[in-house]
Design goal:
Elements (H helix, E strand, L loop, with lengths): L2 H34 L5 E9 L4 E10 L2 E5 L10 E4 L3 E5 L1 E6 L6 H10 L2 E6 L4 H10 L9 E4 L28 H11 L4 E4 L9 H13 L4 E4 L3 H9 L4 E3 L11 H7 L3 E3 L2 H9 L8 H4 L4 H8 L12 H13 L19 H12 L4 H7 L2 H6 L16 E5 L12 E6 L2 E2 L8
Parallel strand pairs: 1-4, 1-5, 6-7, 7-8, 9-10, 10-11, 11-12
Antiparallel strand pairs: 1-2, 2-3, 5-13, 13-14, 14-15
Helix pairs in contact: 4-5, 7-11, 12-13
Length: 432
């Protein structure tokens, strides 16, 4: 090949390489520019805000990149922002349900149902391998259309103790004389976020010493210990043993003098689950059949709502005992957390949290206190520093409703919109 031809070929190759390089460079530059483009700013304008503690009237909330960036009447609103008119509406932190179960079927759908009704974080109080798998998945951005999940995984019970009588796969149990620390450590190794303990004398249950030892074992690993109780004497034992929280409030007897003060002195929180106690003691209610809710009741929810407790179940319980105990605890300054026990018979994920709020108000809490029970109180009790409140730097898990829930707690049912990490959530309509 002549020198001129070799030179021409070399120049041609260089030209092609330069062209290819330039094209690649332009594609990379375009990608970087796109990647660096901030997410479109969302602004709630002239809206009342329940910030997890108090109501702030007629202000603005700026959301960008999944987080709340500013709250105030004087914040700068970008010209390119999407503005939502908040006139006559209230913006709240999306709710917690502090006592749920998922079970082995419909688990992912239950999490979707929860978010459909403004519950963005669910705390499961007894789970399974499926729960633990969903717990990991719920932290992914690809799982954005369901509620976030934390779980106790497999709880702590004894042979033939509750809930072994309910059937299903074999449950690991703690025998008398068993290695308590090793048993608790095994639950943590499985992925438990906190330790759930069953202490119910209607079935074989832990001894008082075992109860104390299990709670101490959880605390040695910096895990909360939440104790399932059904009677006042069980509640006293759990508090005295060092429990961080009680799952359920008793309905077997009137609250004794000094009980609420004992709970306050030991700094426990209580998840009363009034919704399930109402279902047990008074039977199913049709409170949810109004237009604001019924159109969003999915088949999985309907199945839960239609189920009933067996005849005679809870015959010795009185709902007014439970309500009076909640009132006494609240007056004593004990943190009350909203939880439902969904999907127990007559209850559904997400939906029943709104009834729980109403029942808390009926039990003596002011509406603002009931709202705290579903937002900032569970966030504080379970160590969530990124949600449960509305303020700069927090997750934009938000619920927009019509009206003022600090005047009428039932306003939470008038849902205008739901956002999880700043992304609008499309609710599932029954006929979709």
């Amino acid at each position: 090949m002549s020198q001129s031809r070799r030179l021409g070929s070399c120049l041609l190759r260089r030209t092609r390489l330069s062209t290819a390089f330039a094209a690649s460079f332009l594609l990379l530059a375009a990608f970087l520019v796109t990647a660096q483009q901030p997410e479109k700013t969302l602004v709630f304008s002239n809206v009342d805000v329940f910030d997890g503690s108090r109501m702030i009237r007629r202000t603005n909330v700026i959301v960008r990149d999944g987080m709340i960036r500013a709250v105030g009447v004087d914040v700068a609103i970008p010209n390119s922002a999407q503005v939502i008119d908040g006139e006559g509406k209230t913006l709240l932190p999306a709710f917690f349900d502090s006592h749920v179960h998922l079970g082995a079927t419909n688990a992912e759908q239950f999490l979707k149902d929860a978010l459909d009704f403004g519950v963005a974080t669910e705390l499961e109080m007894w789970g399974s391998e499926l729960s633990l798998a969903l717990r990991k998945k719920s932290a992914s951005n690809d799982f954005a259309d369901v509620a976030d999940l934390r779980t106790a995984g497999t709880g702590i019970t004894v042979p033939r103790g509750h809930p072994t009588q309910m059937g299903g796969p074999p449950i690991p149990t703690l025998a008398v004389g068993g290695d308590t620390q090793a048993f608790v450590d095994a639950r943590i190794a499985e992925g438990a976020d906190y330790i759930k303990i069953i202490y119910e004398h209607a079935f074989p249950t832990l001894t008082k010493q075992q109860l104390h030892d299990v709670i101490a074992a959880a605390h040695r690993r910096n895990k909360l210990a939440v104790v399932h109780v059904t009677t006042q004497s069980e509640a006293r034992d759990a508090i005295s043993a060092g429990a961080d929280g009680l799952a359920h409030i008793f309905a077997d007897s009137p609250s004794e003098p000094g009980f609420a003060e004992l709970a306050a002195q030991h700094h426990v929180f209580v998840v009363p689950t009034l919704s399930v106690l109402e279902a047990v003691t008074t039977g199913p209610r049709s409170w949810w059949q109004g237009e604001e809710f019924s159109r969003y009741v999915t088949p999985s929810m309907q199945g839960s709502l239609d189920r009933k407790f067996p005849p005679g179940f809870g015959a010795k319980l009185r709902f007014d005992h439970a309500q009076a105990a909640v009132a006494a605890l609240h007056r004593a300054g004990v943190p009350i957390l909203a939880g439902t026990d969904a999907p127990a018979p007559g209850l559904a994920h997400g939906l029943s949290l709104h009834r729980e709020l109403e029942l808390l108000v009926n039990s003596g809490l002011r509406p603002a206190a009931a709202l705290r029970a579903a937002t900032s109180e569970p966030a504080r009790a379970f160590g969530f520093h990124d949600r449960g409140r509305i303020g700069p730097g927090l997750r934009a898990d938000l619920l927009l409703i019509k009206g003022d829930p600090t005047s009428d707690i039932r306003a939470t049912r008038q849902i205008v919109g739901i956002w999880k990490q700043g992304v609008p959530h499309q609710r599932t309509r029954r006929n979709d």
